[in-house]
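Tutorial, part two.
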Amino acid sequence: MQTGDLIVQRPEGLYCPPGDFYIDPWRPVARAVITHAHADHARVGHGQYLASAPAEGVLRARLGEIDLQTLPYGEQIVHNGVKLSLHPAGHVLGSSQVRLEHAGRVWVASGDYKVAPDPTCAPFEAVRCDVFITESTFGLPIYRWVSDDELFTDINDWWSRNLLAGRASVIACYSFGKAQRVLSGVDASIGPIIVHGAVEPLNRAYRDAGVDLPPTKLVTEVTDKADLKRALVVCPPGAAASTWLRRFGDASTAFASGWMQLRGARRRGGWDRGFVLSDHADWPGLMGAIGATGAQRVIVTHGSIPVMVRYLREQGLEAESFETEYGGDAVEADVEAPAA
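Running the prediction step on this input gives:
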């Protein structure tokens, strides 16, 4: 790190010394700027929270009663002489990049981000800066996502085949962000959609924010038992491995994750199908996003850090890393909600 850096590492998290606040801290602090509501970035116990306006519903659904100030995307505030604004990260509903300007320098902390189109959240916005802090969850050249058209054609065909065979189609994915992206992309005319109790509160937050999702039911709300054999069932991975799944009988199971790009991941997980669907940028997305910032200095966090740092240095950038407690695409087990 360099003298006068606008963001530094502390045991509590990423800290802005002139502003005296933290970004996505993992230990309790007085003032926290939150990039998004995933559990590794938004934790209980902070004194005051600042997040984007679209994130309010999901943050309150996950953290309960907190002292939360919201800021519309692009609107600037000044705190202790630091100009701060939030910009869309394209990761999940309300996800933000944090732009900080102080003493003629501009830093952007991206949190987690995705550059591919997603109807459930505002699209990623490249923000020009001197220093860019980037994730590297899928920071290897092998990670390259297919288009949503191709992906959801595959998912819909799988659901249709299962329906004709009299089997439920159970797709396991993380309850916040991934589940809503699945719901927004499937063809709801194929059959009923049932969601786990961990998913539905977040669906409500998305709908309250104006995101169009198809009708969903909890399994306890299903009156026609035949629907259990026709349904697309969206649940967290933990539920798919529990006795909760038994009520659907002979079901076909799938897992939606960027990790399904890896050969053998589906087999090791015991899934019938694997769909490559991620809320993070793939390798071309990461490289494009970094390039679009114009930053000459890049700090890499959680993921494939050594590979990213080495590659960026080979491209002539000043690259280094931060050690964080963020968990990337594997943190959201999401089994804490009732299993209705």
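The first helix runs from residue 56 to 63. In part three we will examine how such features are distributed along the chain.
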